[in-house]
Amino acid sequence: MIAQRHILGTFDESLAALRNNVLMMAGLTERSLDRAMKGLFDRDDNICAHAIADDEEIDQLEKQIDKDGVDILLRFQPVASDLRRVVSAMKLSSNLERMADQATTIARRARKLNRHPPLPEVELMKPMYEQAMSMFKDAVDAFVREDVELGRAIVPRDEKLDELNRQASHKLVERMAQDPDQLRGYLNLIFVGRCLERVGDHATNIAEDAVYAAAAEDIRHQSIAAVT
Amino acid sequence: MATPERSVAERVEQRPESLPSEEAVPARTFEVRSMSIWYGEKRAIDNVSLDVASNAVTAIIGPSGCGKSTFLRALNRMHELTPKTRMEGKVLLHGEDLYSSGIDPAIVRRRVGMVFQKSNPFPTMTVGENVVIGLRLNGVRNQKFLNERLERSLRMAALWDEVKDDLHKPGTSLSGGQQQRLCIARALAVEPEVILMDEPCSALDPIATAKIEELINELKTKYTIVTVTHNMQQAGRISDYTAFFYLGRLIEFGPTTKIFTNPAEKQTEDYITGRFG
Fold first, then answer.
1. For A56-103, how does the pLDDT look when each residue is reduced to its tens digit (9 = 90+)?
2. pLDDT for B63-83, tens place per residue?
3. In CATH, what is the architecture of A9-227?
4. Fewer beta carbons within 10 Å, N or C terminal of chain B?
5. Do B225 and B219 meet the contact criterion of CB atoms below 8 Å apart?
6. Residue A80 and residue B276: Cβ atoms within 8 Å?
7. What percent of chain B is modeled with pLDDT above 70?
8. For residue range A178-196, what is the model confidence (pLDDT) as tens digits?
9. Which residues of A lie closer than 8 Å to B, measured between beta carbons?
10. Which residues of A touch B260 (CB under 8 A)?
C-alpha cells in the first residue's frame, strides 16, 4: 500500500530517497551474491573479482542510508508508519551489508577453489543458493510491497535452508575423510555453505523488519507456528 | 556522594524475575460518559466517552477546532463560563458526578486545577501573592501556613530556587517560562487532585518548554494530568495516554506508544504523520 502524500513535500522526498537507496542496495547485494556464486560454479576469477568490488559501493550505501535515516529522524521526527519505515530501512541496510560481506567471502573462497581441480560436490551448493536467493528476493519484495503475509511466510523457509546446509556439511566432512588430498577444497565448500546459510538468516531478518514496517508487529524470536 | 555504578553481574543478579504486566488496568480519576457539548447550535463535543488514568499524563491532540479545549474545560466545568453552553452526559471524578445538582462549580475547579496556554499571573500581585491567592480567597489567614504552602508550591513547580529572593516582586516581572511555572504553582497551592493544562508550552522557548515537561513528569507521581497540545513530539515525550479528537469526536484513545507507533484508525495515522488536510 502506498500511503497518501504528506503535507510537507520535503518529507516525502526524503522518505523516497531513503527507500530508493535501500532498493539500490538490495539490487547491488543480489548482483554481488549472484556474481560470487557464478564465479564459484563457472570457476571464473574475473566474476569473483567483480563480486568483491561490489562490496565497496554497498558499504557506502549503508553509510548513506544511516545518515539519511538519522537526518529524517532529526528533521521530521516521524511517527507511526513513517517511523517504522525509517527504522526498518536502517535495519535493512545493516542486513544487506552483511549479506554483501557473505558474497565477498564466497567469492574469496571460490577463487581459492579455482586454483585446484574442480570438485563435483560444488553441486551441493546449488539448492542452498536457490533457497537463499528466493528467500532474499521475497524478503525485499515483502518490504517494498509491504506484504505482511509474504514476510511471515519467509521465516519458516529458513529451516529448509538450515537443513540443506546440515546435509551438505555432513557429506563434505565424509568426503574429507575419504579424500584427504582435497581437504582444503571441501573445507572451502563448507565455508561457502555457511555463508549461504547466513544469507538466509539475514533474509529472515529483513522479512521480520518488513512485517514490522507494514503491520507494527514484532515477529522476531517466536516459534514458527506463532509467526505463521 | 554519587551512588556507585552497579557492576554488570550485580545488574543481572538483581533483575526482576518477570516483566511487569502491560495488561494491568490503571486506576481511573475521570470517567467521562457520553459527553456532548453545544455552544448555542454548534455541537463542539459529540458523544465522547473516555477514562482518564490516575497519576498519569493524558494528552489530547487534534486539529484546531476539534473540541480538545472544550473537552478539557468540561473536566472542571470551566466551559460553563461561555454563554449559551449546553452539556449532556456525565463526568465522574473518583466516581462522583461533577455535574449533578448540588455540586458547586467553584469546588470542582479547586479540585481540578487549570493552567492555560498564555501564562496569566495576576498583574497587580507579587510572586508570593499570586501563589497563595487561591488559599486567601478560600479564607485561609494563617500566615505561617500560607508561607509553608507558598514555598512548597514553588518548590513543586521547580521555581523556588529561582524566585525565593524575589517573592515581593510583581509576578509579571518573571520570564515567560517562570510565569508559566508560577501559574502551575498557583494551581498546586490549593492542592488539587487533577491538573488540566491547555497548551502549557506553546508560548515558551525550548528551554522553558523542557523545564515544564520535566515538571509535568515529576508532578504525575502526585497528580493526574490532562494536557492539550499541538506538539506531536511533546505528546510523545510526556504523555502516557493519548486521545485524538476530530470534529468533536474521539477518534482514538490508547497508550501513547501505541498511538504513535501503530494507531488503529487511519484518521489518527494521517493526522500524526502530517497527511491530514
1. 999 999 999 999 999 999 999 999 999 999 999 999 999 999 999 999
2. 999 999 999 999 999 999 899
3. Up-down Bundle (1.20)
4. N
5. yes
6. no
7. 95
8. 999 999 999 999 999 999 9
9. 3-8, 11, 77-84, 215-216
10. 79-80, 83
Residue of A196, A192, A194, A188 whose CA lies nearest to A131: A196
State how far the Cα of A58 lies from the Cα of A27, in Å rounded to an integer. Answer: 10
Tell me, what's the ipTM?
Answer: 0.80
The C-alpha cell 497527511 sits at: B275
B46 touches chain A (CB under 8 A): no
> What is the number of other CB atoms lying within 10 angstroms of the CB of residue A128?
26
Long-range contacts of A64-69 (CB under 8 A, 24+ apart): A64/A21, A65/A18, A65/A21, A65/A22, A65/A25, A65/A89, A65/A90, A65/A93, A66/A90, A66/A93, A68/A14, A68/A17, A68/A18, A68/A21, A69/A18
In this complex, which of A4, A83, A84 lies closest to B275 when CB atoms are compared? A4
CA pair distance B187, B110, nearest whole angstrom: 8
Which residue in the set B268, B272, B275 is minimally distant from A7, CB to CB? Answer: B275
Residue A103 · residue A51 · CB < 8 Å: yes
Report the 10 Å Cβ neighbour count for B131: 31
Domains of chain B and CATH, by start = 26-272 (3.40.50.300)
Q: What is the value of pTM for the model shown?
A: 0.85
Chain B residues touching A83 at Cβ < 8 A: 260-261
How many Å apart are CA A52 and CA A59, to the nearest integer?
12
Give the distance from residue A79's alpha carbon to the nearest chain B alpha carbon, in angstroms. Answer: 5
- The shortest CB-CB distance from B233 to any of A5, A77, A84 is to A77
User: Which among B233, B261, B268 has CB closest to A84?
Assistant: B261
